[in-house]
């Protein structure tokens, strides 16, 4: 299977709060305009520029939790986790009900080496009834256990994420990794088959299923799934991965 780590790219939950061009041009909306520009830089991988724009947004309005969330995400892209943690905590200080930030904070804590503190944030987010994406909190919690080879906990939390959102592909992949690591390759195949049925357009699941079938020695089926992944995602990361794995499938 594809080696899996906690995703260092943070979800931009504030995208829906982008100001319109007309709003950005109005007097007094410079902070919102800076925020919008920072998000563009962040999406396109220009973390240094994003940090500068978010700092200017915060300077213009230091009571806006979304500005601090964006700043934290930009710092995280730079792998400046101490600064990211500080920004995320400031966001939560301003708005304790901004539950999504706990996923970001948990991620930054994990990546900074404070794994138990990070898991506490994921668990707090998961348990909050107002959390709009509990499956992400559960997936992140599972992934942290998988990285430590605590497969029982990883399997539990990946399954929990799937229950919360059956079309979310990532937990199926993580669950398969944990099952394969514990010698349950055929069960991993079965779980990925379920995932493909739930989300047939997701090339990551097709690629994962192809890899699991390859490990199980089911070469004809593996080839079919990998070829389907390449067809669906010819230039994307999963399509390219599938094409590489195809080269290793015995004919």
Straight-line N-to-C gap: 20 Å
Arithmetic mean of pLDDT? 89
Overall shape: it is: globular
Percentage of residues in DSSP E strands: under 5%
The protein's oligomeric status is: single chain
Instruction: Report helical residue fraction.
Output: over 70%
Number-wise, the strands total: 0
Give the name of the CATH architecture of the largest domain: Alpha Horseshoe
CATH homology group of the largest domain: Tetratricopeptide repeat domain
Task: Please state the CA-atom Rg, rounded to the nearest Å.
Answer: 20 Å
The low-confidence runs, each spanning 5 or more residues with pLDDT under 50, are: 2-28
Taking the sheet with the most strands, its summary is: none
CATH class of the largest domain: Mainly Alpha
Number of domains: 2
Describe the 3D structure.
The protein is mainly α and 251 residues long. It folds into 2 domains: 1-132, Tetratricopeptide repeat domain (Serine Threonine Protein Phosphatase 5, Tetratricopeptide repeat, Alpha Horseshoe); 150-251, Serine Threonine Protein Phosphatase 5, Tetratricopeptide repeat (Alpha Horseshoe), CATH 1.25.40. It has 14 helices and no strands. The chain has helices spanning 21-25, 30-43, 47-60, 65-77, 81-94, 100-111, 115-127, 134-147, 151-164, 169-181, 185-198, 203-215, 219-232, 237-246. The longest helix is centred in the first third of the chain and has 14 residues, at 30-43. It is globular. The two termini are 20 Å apart. The model is unreliable at 2-28 (pLDDT under 50).
